[in-house]
Amino acid sequence: MDKEERKIINQGQEDEMEIYGYNLSRWKLAIVSLGVICTGGFLLLLLYWMPEWRVKATCVRAAIKDCEVVLLRTTDEFKTWFCAKIRFLSLETHPFSSPKSMSDKLSIGRAVCLIENPTEENRQEISKYSQTESQQIRYFTHHSIKYFWNDNIHNFSFLKGLDEGVSCTSIYEKHSAGLTKGMHAYRKLLYGINEIAVKVPSVFKLLIKEVLNPFYIFQLFSVILWCTDEYYYYALAIVVMSIVSIVTSLYSIRKQYVMLHDMVATHSTVRVSVCRVNEEMEEIFSTDLVPGDVVVIPLNGIIMPCDAVLINGTCIVNESMLTGESVPVTKTNLPNPSVDVRGKGDELYNPETHKRHTLFCGTTVIQTRFYTGEFVKAIVVRTGFSTSKGQLVRSILYPKPTDFKLYRDAYLFLLCLVAVAGIGFIYTIINSILNEVEVGIIIIESLDIITITVPPALPAAMTAGIVYAQRRLKKIGIFCISPQRINICGQLNLVCFDKTGTLTEDGLDLWGIQRVENTRFLLPEENVCNEMLVKSQFVACMATCHSLTKIEGVLSGDPLDLKMFEAIGWILEEATEEETALHNRIMPTVVRPPKQLLPESTPAGNQEMELFELPAIYEIGIVRQFPFSSALQRMSVVARVLGDKKMDAYMKGAPEVIASLCKPETVPVDFQKVLEDFTKQGFRVIALAHRKLESKLTWHKVQNISRDAIENNMDFMGLIIMQNKLKQETPAVLEDLHKANIRTVMVTGDNMLTAVSVARDCGMILPQDKVIIAEALPPKDGKVAKINWHYADSLTQCSHPSAIDSEDIPVKLVHDSLEDLQMTRYHFAMNGKSFSVILEHFQDLVPKLMLHGTVFARMAPDQKTQLIEALQNVDYFVGMCGDGANDCGALKRAHGGISLSELEASVASPFTSKTPSISCVPNLIREGRAALITSFCVFKFMALYSIIQYFSVTLLYSILSNLGDFQFLFIDLAIILVVVFTMSLNPAWKELVPQRPPSGLISGALLFSVLSQIIISIGFQSLGFFWVKQQPWYEVWHPESDACNTTRSLFWNSSHVDNETELDEHNIKNYENTTVFFISSFQYLIVAIAFSKGKPFRQPCYKNYFFVFSVIFLYAFILFIMLYPVASVDQVLEIVCVPYQWRITMLIIVLVNAFVSITVEESVDRWGKCCLSWALGCRKKTPKAKYMYLAQELLVDPEWPPKPQTTTEAKALVRENGSCQIITIT
């Protein structure tokens, strides 16, 4: 394959794809058309199912630059193919595309900097995407995203907005003025309509798509075949079943589309005001917005129709749609680096990094605050499917295929059945030719054997267990939007938990404060709300340094801020719209203490007046707010006490960060020790700092100053200690999971030591277990990246590395038994920064760390997703349980994601729990295991059903007979469907057990079970078939035959003779048919009982009352019609009369069959695994899962785990391989 013709698009991203170019070939098209006619349209169906075959069969390879069709293939493990047609966007037809107005147009570059270039430059920019002279841009659409041809990179790339490659400075300098009408029209031509269009397909379209499923095509083929063979009743039954199945499927698919459409339609079209270049305002529909438009955010709020960055004013936004947090967030304008000299002028704008300044699509702006005469303005950065909400909707519309061994094995098993059918097909043809059967009958009967082998009810049977499990989950408050995942949950062997709100209570309680005076910590204080502290800088910081706001008179905001503010008992007042309009500057939010807290004193003389007035007017105005940033781990405010000349800066955040920004002399010497004492007890600690600002800093200057200029040289004031209590059920649930050998991992945004403490408290890390902290440092000043290994408990015990007692360290992990290994278990803990460095520079250590990594602290949302992927790479089946706040990506990526939040964000999670408690995790795994075992039982039963029926028909074909229409109908509807749908009803076992169900159908014990039952069934059927021929009363049956006693009632004979006037064309009625029919009917029920497994994953089958009743009823009915024939039943089922003695013989055959089948199945269950292990014992078996193989390797590795106080360095020369060496620092 020529390199020129194979390119990669979206390189390094999740949706990376290979792209190949093709041109339509007329001669190939003519050959395919001929093939379609010759195959009666089957070739067309085949090409519809296989896009790569379709393109290769009708097109020839071409250069991507000039091709008409592109073939795309994902580079992930699924290697999915797509094809797309190249379209042309003509620029000549557009009124704004004349060269004169080129400077008014869009420039579309690599990251689309969207700047107004001079005419000549702009022409070059456009030529990147357009063919040189014709001004036509080539593009194709894939998964709702347009990919344009880019001449610069000689490849297709999608059009980006202002979210990449645009600096914060240029946002203010080049984009804040707005667009001209010409430029807007040109951009709209390229970017298209700003909407997240979820088209609800018409019922007809969905029907065609559903009916063209290979399975339904096979059913259609079967039905046509049966009709030609006059099996009308059975064909009708299958048609009815298929129609019910199709209607149900269409209903659920359409319902999901409608739900998704309604979810995105809320903001699809609103009227918005945009600013144009000459400062004029224009009102347009939100669907006409393009990147670069300057939107005015209305006073009364709006549901954002796009992603936009705030450049003027402040907004209060509800982001529950995206984050799952219903807490309103304050968004401030993007810092303008050009105003402040110290600002980073070249910092690139990024919606993630600057999310505190970005308004995301679909979020609700509740309130705005603004300057007089100036509007709250935002620049549109992304539109349509490129927005954050658009990406979420795309991930739902085009989900990644679920890779699960069960489904792959199911297809493999079907192929085996097709191969068996092929043998029967050839046998039937040869046998029929030898018996000189007509050609028409040969064709029908040989094709019929295929339809018998591949059971038409298989898909319906396989989904029954999942549907029942879904219903049981709903009863216990767990809702599921992806039912296929229930089976996968049965395989989970590792569960990641978010900490706050998941393992611990949602809210934090204020435990107390510890102030600093004269660089020494005072004793902790519980009550902050007292007269002594009311005017202290410490309380002033608690009163002002927050993002609280009043919405309809109620204080709301971050729960932590809310708890802090409530603890001091102050009052917050915000300026009204009228007040804001009267002043030339923004009116500050004011906080003041309640009057009863202010000290009351009545000294004599002239002091009295001053002291009387002072308390009455003691209030603080919040002048400027720098919102909390998870990247910076802090927030700060500039405030002024009423009447003071100088302003104050207050800051709060992560203690380590705050201490680093304070004057070293103000930080107590024992700061680290005090902090660790609190964090090790599981407290959440926040540090406060303060400094007086220079008097030259005026109000206006403060509005434009960068946060770096404020957040330095502070005075350390002390710590606020918050308590985050464990949820009551957490320890018990984690203990259940540990007993079931399911690993638990904590992934949190909280402090490392707090996380380790909570992990110990809840039993995730046992008291005797060791915790090794991996602190990874990126390459710096020419030095390579390195990891320092610390010992969690020793961090506080000593200040010098050599003082560590070497006996406390698990130096070697080579053990004679697993019991010893359990005694010296160790866990790795690391923060998000270290995790990123390890992923980048120490790839060979990642699997080892995944094996024992238990605590991951300070993890950003994307790092949580990377962790899930890293765990999956070592073959763990990973569950993720989070409150949906910042876990969306991880919940989506995990094999089983459970959201404890019922908000719209849970649309990203396959499972949502109604009760915000982790007790849903073991419940889900139990139900998953039950559903998985049910799937195995059903699959084994359906396989046996098809083989038993296949063998019955093959035996009867040998004497040119077959099963009758009503016999097929009775077996398939009365026995098979009833058994399948009731055997799936077994509820889950009441507790989690250590053993895990098999993940695939192709396992030794399972195959042995199926093969042994096949041999038993074939053996007993053959016995009956050949033994009946040896009976003294046997003759080739004809209408006058009567092997029964002639003394029988005349009614029996007369009824038979009357109905036998017509000749039996298909030779259904004979002794062999009757014998095979009775024995096989019992065999279906025998294997159903044998395969209906109970413990340890499901409740015993005798507790499944529907199944027990159905089986008993069917046994009784078949036994009754076998031993005491009813003429009307015999007539319908086309059964012939056989002597009573033969009926008893058949009963004995059936009883022996039942005894052998159930005994063999029980033996396989008990000793099958042991026997297989013994048989394969000669060759040492390597564990299939990577993590198990790795665990074996690490057991004999003397270098692992790394000894504390050692350092691992990345090798500079071979860094791309992630190799590393261990250097012990003494």
Topology:
Blueprint: E1 6-9, E2 17-24, H1 26-38, H2 42-49, H3 51-58, E3 59-61, E4 69-74, E5 81-85, E6 87-90, H4 119-129, E7 136-142, E8 145-150, E9 155-158, H5 168-175, H6 181-191, H7 203-211, H8 214-228, H9 232-265, E10 271-275, E11 281-285, E12 294-296, E13 302-303, E14 307-312, E15 314-318, H10 320-323, E16 329-331, E17 358-359, E18 364-369, E19 377-382, H11 388-397, H12 405-434, H13 439-453, H14 458-475, E20 478-480, H15 484-489, E21 494-497, H16 499-503, E22 509-517, E23 520-521, H17 537-544, E24 549-551, E25 554-556, H18 559-568, E26 571-573, H19 577-582, E27 589-592, H20 607-616, E28 620-629, E29 634-641, E30 648-653, H21 655-660, H22 671-680, E31 683-692, H23 699-704, H24 707-710, E32 715-723, H25 730-739, E33 743-747, H26 752-761, E34 770-777, E35 786-791, H27 794-797, H28 818-823, E36 826-831, H29 832-841, H30 846-852, E37 853-857, H31 861-873, E38 878-882, H32 888-893, E39 896-899, E40 911-913, H33 920-957, H34 965-983, H35 1004-1029, H36 1050-1058, H37 1071-1091, H38 1105-1123, H39 1127-1133, H40 1140-1175, ...
Parallel strand pairs: 21-33, 21-38, 33-37, 34-36, 36-37, 38-39, 39-40
Antiparallel strand pairs: 1-2, 2-3, 2-4, 4-5, 6-7, 7-8, 8-9, 10-11, 10-12, 12-19, 13-18, 14-17, 14-19, 15-16, 15-18, 20-40, 22-23, 22-32, 24-25, 26-27, 27-28, 28-29, 29-30, 30-31, 31-32, 34-35, 35-41, 41-42
Transmembrane segments: 27-49, 232-253, 410-430, 450-469, 936-960, 966-989, 1001-1028, 1074-1092, 1104-1128, 1140-1160
Pfam family, one: Cation_ATPase_N
Function: ATP-driven pump involved in endocytosis-dependent polyamine transport. Uses ATP as an energy source to transfer polyamine precursor putrescine from the endosomal compartment to the cytosol.
